[in-house]
């Protein structure tokens, strides 16, 4: 999915772990260290295990019949995760697609269940110019006669057509399963008549109900025959309570509090806006940086006047893909001419400025890229 993949993986991992299963999870990108990408039983793979796996892959690559096989950075990482999961004897592997779906390295696996969270405009140079094109690419992870869970309430026709063409057993949010929120929690309901009254997800954003519903639908379709209905309910409830996903509206404390989120496209910004609208009124300081290929104007427009002051950070020192702060400021001025802002060479300086100017009772929201989230979390540890 365009957004929600990492959260949905975290939810599945927590629920399956609560069910007593041995779980491997592969996600990307990482925030602070590469080891985060490969987890077994909730623990990051250690350096020695990763290095040994990379050495096995390199030996196989160099010894392949007909000469060495070229592999990308992500392909190496995907193979290492699969190798370590196999050696650990996991009961279930939860694999997050890196980019798109059809051509992604993770798609070498014929998944028992595929889940597509959302479809929106991002990575358009690779996936196509519109939601239909992007949806077709994402549908590539589905397999004939196997469940394909669609968490998007308004999926593009291209996604549904591609899923039908491959013969997947499609289950759609709002049609085959649904979310009903109420004061004491929420209800997950399936068209087969099954339903559960559930606690709120531990993850903060309102969009996490949709991610949780998608995760539950995937587990429901997987048909974990070893679990009784009461055990399934207990595992889902415990997973909702225990789930953690770093930099998904993560509060790192302080006064005023700093909230960190990896949201980096307009759809994610709309989710941030929905969360802000649900919070008690407070002046909001944004620490914002972006990659040069992102729809910065779309992100700014989605948040609009909910941000009282923008502390803009250049990311060009952090990555060749990063946007320089002067370019970022120019887009902000064109998109929100009345916006209040200052500019900084990097995230650390922008965060320091936000902390220096924000008053008690106000709020600091750091977002725009994994590079922003990584820098803020690293600053806290440092």
Describe the secondary-structure layout.
Elements: H1 5-18, E1 23-26, E2 38-40, E3 43-44, H2 47-62, H3 73-88, E4 92-95, E5 114-116, H4 124-127, H5 131-139, E6 147-150, H6 157-166, E7 169-172, E8 177-182, E9 185-190, E10 195-198, H7 208-222, H8 229-242, E11 250-251, E12 258-260, H9 266-277, E13 284-288, H10 296-303, E14 309-313, H11 325-335, E15 341-344, H12 347-357, E16 363-367, H13 370-381
Parallel strand pairs: 1-4, 5-6, 6-7, 12-16, 13-14, 13-16, 14-15
Antiparallel strand pairs: 1-2, 2-3, 8-9, 9-10, 11-12
Helix pairs in contact: 1-7, 1-8, 2-3, 5-6, 9-10, 10-11
**The CATH topology of the largest domain is what?**
UDP-N-acetylmuramoyl-L-alanine:D-glutamate ligase
CATH C-level category of the largest domain: Alpha Beta
Give the overall silhouette. Answer: globular
Distance between the termini: 33 Å
Account of the 3D structure:
The structure is a single chain. The protein is of the alpha/beta class. The protein folds into two domains: 169 residues, 3-Layer(aba) Sandwich (UDP-N-acetylmuramoyl-L-alanine:D-glutamate ligase); 128 residues, Mur ligase, C-terminal domain (Protein-Tyrosine Phosphatase, Chain A, Alpha-Beta Complex). The chain is built from 13 helices and 16 strands. The strands form four sheets. The chain has a six-stranded mixed β-sheet with strand order 11-12-16-13-14-15. A four-stranded mixed β-sheet has the order 3-2-1-4, sandwiched between helices. Strand 6, helix 6 and strand 7 form a beta-alpha-beta unit. Helix 5 runs parallel beside helix 6 and helix 10 crosses helix 11. The longest helix has 16 residues. The chain is globular, with a radius of gyration of 21 Å. The model has no long low-confidence stretch (mean pLDDT 95).
């Amino acid at each position: 999915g365009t957004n929600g993949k990492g959260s949905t993986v975290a939810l599945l991992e927590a629920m399956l772990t609560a069910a007593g299963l041995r779980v491997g999870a592969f996600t990307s990108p990482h925030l602070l260290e590469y080891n985060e990408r490969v987890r077994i039983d909730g623990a990051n793979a250690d350096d020695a295990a990763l290095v040994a796996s990379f050495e096995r892959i390199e030996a196989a690559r160099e010894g392949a019949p007909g000469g060495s096989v070229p592999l990308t950075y992500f392909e190496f990482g995907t193979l290492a995760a699969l190798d370590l999961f196999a050696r650990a004897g996991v009961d279930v592997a939860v694999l997050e697609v890196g980019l798109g779906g059809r051509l992604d390295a993770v798609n070498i696996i014929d998944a028992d269940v595929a889940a597509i969270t959302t479809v929106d405009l991002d990575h358009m140079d690779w996936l196509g110019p519109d939601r239909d094109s992007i949806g077709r690419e994402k549908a590539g992870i589905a397999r004939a006669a196997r469940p394909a869970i669609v968490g998007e309430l308004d999926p593009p026709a291209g996604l549904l057509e591609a899923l039908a063409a491959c013969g997947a057993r499609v289950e759609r949010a709002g049609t085959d399963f649904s979310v009903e929120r109420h004061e004491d929690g929420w209800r997950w309901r399936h068209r087969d008549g099954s339903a559960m009254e559930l606690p709120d997800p531990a993850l903060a954003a309102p969009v996490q109900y949709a991610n949780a519903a998608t995760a539950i639908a995937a587990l429901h379709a997987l048909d974990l025959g070893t679990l009784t209905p009461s055990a399934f309910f207990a595992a889902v409830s415990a997973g909702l309570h225990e789930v953690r996903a770093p930099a998904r509206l993560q509060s790192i404390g302080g006064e005023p509090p700093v909230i960190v989120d990896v949201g980096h496209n307009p759809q994610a910004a709309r989710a941030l806006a929905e969360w802000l609208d649900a919070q008690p009124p407070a002046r909001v300081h944004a620490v914002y940086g972006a990659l040069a290929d992102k729809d910065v104007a779309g992100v700014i427009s989605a948040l609009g006047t909910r941000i009282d002051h923008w502390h803009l950070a250049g990311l060009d020192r952090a990555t060749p893909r990063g946007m320089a702060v002067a370019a970022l400021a120019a887009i902000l001025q064109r998109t929100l001419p009345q916006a209040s802002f200052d500019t900084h060479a990097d995230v650390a300086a922008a965060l320091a400025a936000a902390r220096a100017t924000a008053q008690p009772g106000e709020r600091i929201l750091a977002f725009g890229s994994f590079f922003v989230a990584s820098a803020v979390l690293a600053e806290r540890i440092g």
